Amino acid sequence: MSDFRLLAERYATELTADLLAGRRRPGERLPTSRDYAHRQGIAPSTASRVYAELVRRGVAVGEVGRGTFLRPPGDSAPGGPAGHGLPALPAREMRPDGITDLEVNFCVLPEQAALLAPALARLAADPTALTEAMLRAETRGTPASRAAAAALLARGGWAPEAERLLFAGRGQQALAAVFSALVPPGERIGFEAMTYTMAKGMALRLGLQPVPLAMDAEGLRPDALLAAHRAHPLRLVYLQSELHNPLGTTMPPARRRELAALLQELGIVAVEDAVYAFLAEDSGAPLAALAPEHVVLVDSLSKRVSPGLSLGFLVVPPALRHRLAAALRLGGWTAPGYALACGTAWIEEGSVAELVRRKRQDAQARNALARQVLGEAGLSLRGDPRAYHLWLDLPGGWRAETFVAAAARRRIAVSPAAEFAVGSGHAPDSVRLALAAPPAAALRPALEVLRDLALAGPEAGGVE
Q1: Quick count: other Cβ atoms within 10 Å of Cβ 322?
Q2: Whether the Cβ atoms of residue 386 and residue 244 lie closer than 8 Å to each other
Q3: How far apart are CA 420 and CA 203, in angstroms?
Q4: Distances (CA, A) of 332 to 165, 174, 325, 368, 399
Q5: Does 310 score more than 70 pLDDT?
Q6: Could you please report the per-residue DSSP string of 277-312?
Q7: How far apart are CA 396 and CA 394, in angstroms?
Q8: CB-hemisphere CA count at 13 Å for 280?
Q9: Total-model pTM
């Protein structure tokens, strides 16, 4: 490593330490790299390296034409401190008590433990079933688990063939297996310009090159996919066709048909993340139904049931089955036998269907509350009324990072647009509000605080 790189990393580490120690505030705008170079007595090129390293670590975000801003404490960006002996920003799991979390989007209903317990008790009381559950599960599951999963994933007149199913420990592991199996390190993977943070992070961790693809009100634009592939071939495309996270858009049937035809024409494989589709009772057939040889559908029980008791599903083209099964095994991403047995029992006995019914009602009620508190105050909201998340476009004067920092000072966690943006371009001054996690009694007060903060403007926000 060159002396200039070592010097840049040293200064980046010092700035990271200042942020963690509270000597610098999240949302703070750093001086221009030229001014920083002058203050530190270093070359402007070295200062530019410092800022680039801060962005790479997830400690700062650069906005074209506006500068570089420190990020609120949260998960560090992929490719950051790990492996460099550098301090990581505090993980979300290490937040102090008393934070109202509108960042994570998992819902665990108060009554669902009682709903799920009987199947667990029956499994524990059956020595034969329990013994089988303690064995290592195969990637293809069991005949019973394949039949149960096929019934669960069916929608819009489509049902996956049971033999196309593979199982992972959770949906994120299924995505990791697909990315690692189908995209060699250094190759390009297309993403909607705003996308699921963890998917983008996985790609970066695996050494892949995320390529932003333009969107419109109907989702991913086919012309953007075509142009990106013609410029330099894409190895895979990641997309969400139903209740997109974070924007809440749903592709209409015509858009799905257009994309399916394009995937077939270009010979590209897409991975379709369907984890939120269960919230839409009238959900249409997925992209996987229209281009079954060019789409890997990924889903899980994480949202339907819970993140701690989950199971991941993959519906795969037969030509990719062995590659994806090998990736699941080699990555250690296969479903545990106990989770497979529990998930199968919950699906067969109707517990998952009942949870889906209740969570649809819960999501719609929380979404309606947010629209009442924020929308009726004149704030601009985007998203689907059936979803557990909404996109808030901030009033003039607010930057997303500054708003997130001001909310954090009021012990409310929200996600800035930059977390979801693919590429280094300007992210909008918007935030995602995840409505699923807080207790119902805590949600309205938190939304009212955010409403008052947004309307008051950054001058009253308490963040410089």
Answers
A1: 12
A2: no
A3: 13
A4: 18, 11, 11, 41, 41
A5: yes
A6: GGG-TT----HHHHSTTTEEEEEESTTTT-SSS--E
A7: 7
A8: 25
A9: 0.82
